[in-house]
């Protein structure tokens, strides 16, 4: 097992690290000279905009998934036991459904001749179909849609373990519903919130399919940039440098969570 | 019902509607007679029949099943032995291995894909179904290992000790006591690994070569060329398969209980 993972996981990452410091060959290969130019290129304003967009979209996706997922997970955890299985199953089915299919569903709905445009026209909101697809908004919808189950499942796992008498005690002590949520429920379910946010944040930051299908040429994310450098431009050293900077972003994001030393609200205020 | 509960329930229902409405619309329109229109033009099975004649699609399905079967078998052997082996490590070493195991699941999939692509090119291994399968095993091993370990930690160590007291060799104790107790977790892990392998797009996208198109790659190239009712029909079938797989895992779980 360790041998397998060493050869096919650790080694490829090391090769990529080495290539990220190498030069680009004339025909798109790798020239083994040491340089930092690839990393310097990362600060090109064009690339910085793409990182900024990816980060903003990933944070927005995580926040929206949390807002949508929390009440759902809580309802499931508080439902009578025999209903819980059905609710969970309803969350699991989209989770197990092919991601491409779920992204395609939004292409189908949002395209210019699609249902959303027809609906808006029939409602009299507008008279001409507008382009809803190929925008940052379409990517956001697609990402939230794709990753909500990743938020609900860990939240549910945390809430199921919650001792309901603690919440009742808070009610008995005349807490308002807001302070029950903020001072009792949220601190107790924090592990689930952290796990859910990490599970949503990481794949949204590195998303490839969603921006590729729902975003336009102007709404590239880091994932598309890496693919572009590797397969279209064939600048492998630069692609590798971008990959490593993406990994650094992910690790920073995860570390930022753990560094909030038990205070979730501070991070949410900043995000 | 209090106002809070009504609010909570309606928020949950909105969420579920958000999850299901797009899939429902997609499936509904796979039966729509018109190719272009987004309005209902009558019922047809035509798009489903067209799929059966799509040779490229059938070849992709075949490739996908092959890759999923081989990568799941390999990942199960490696993952289960990793989980069992980890129990015997000192706690400090175990923590290091645990961290290393999680890594393939925490790094963005695009990164794993390009790292593998780079590696295969460097060692001059031609891109084919073999490289795709290797790529799938890389993230399936941790999944199998984590699920198996979760179950292993809940087992009563006295059961294995009892086997030793009764004169079992380590292999006999594993084969006759530990393994049967682990079976439900392993079955769950196998189903999960198989499904993830069938569905994987990103790692496959970077590690596939000519002639090794899998189903998701085929779906992707269809989707890239625009919306069509055939894709709706194919999507409907894929949704049905995922439902069947969940049903299967539930039935298996219930039997164990």
Summarize the structure in short.
The complex is a heterodimer of chains A (271) and B (257). Chain A has 271 residues and is mostly helical.
Descriptive overview:
The complex is a heterodimer of chains A (271) and B (257). Chain A is mainly alpha-helical and 271 residues long. Chain A is built from 14 helices and two strands. Chain A has a single domain, classed as MetI-like (MetI-like fold, Orthogonal Bundle), CATH 1.10.3720.10. Chain B has 257 residues and is mostly helical. The mean pLDDT of chain B is 87. Chain B is globular, with a radius of gyration of 23 Å. In chain B, helix 7 runs antiparallel to helix 8 and helix 8 runs antiparallel to helix 11. The chains are: A mainly alpha (271), B mainly alpha (257). Chains A and B meet through helix 1, helix 3, helix 4, helix 5 and helix 7 of A and helix 1, helix 3, helix 4, helix 5 and helix 6 of B.
With strands numbered from the N-terminus, the spatial order across the biggest sheet of chain A is 1-2
* C-alpha end-to-end distance of chain B: 35 Å
- Please tell me the CATH architecture of chain B by its name: Orthogonal Bundle
Q: Tell me the series of helices and strands of chain B, N- to C-terminal.
A: HHHHHHHHHHH
Under CATH, the homologous superfamily of chain B reads MetI-like
Number of strands of chain A: 2
> What fold name stands as the CATH topology of chain A?
MetI-like fold
Strand content of chain B: under 5%
Taking Cα atoms only, what radius of gyration of chain B do you get, to the nearest Å?
23 Å
Q: Kindly name the structural category of chain A.
A: mainly alpha
Number of domains of chain B: 1
Overall 3D geometry of chain A?
A: globular
Q: Please tally the β strands of chain B and state the result.
A: 0
The total number of structural domains of chain A is 1
- The quaternary structure here is heterodimer
Mean pLDDT of chain A: 84
Biggest β-sheet description of chain A: 2 strands, antiparallel
Our count of helices of chain B gives 11
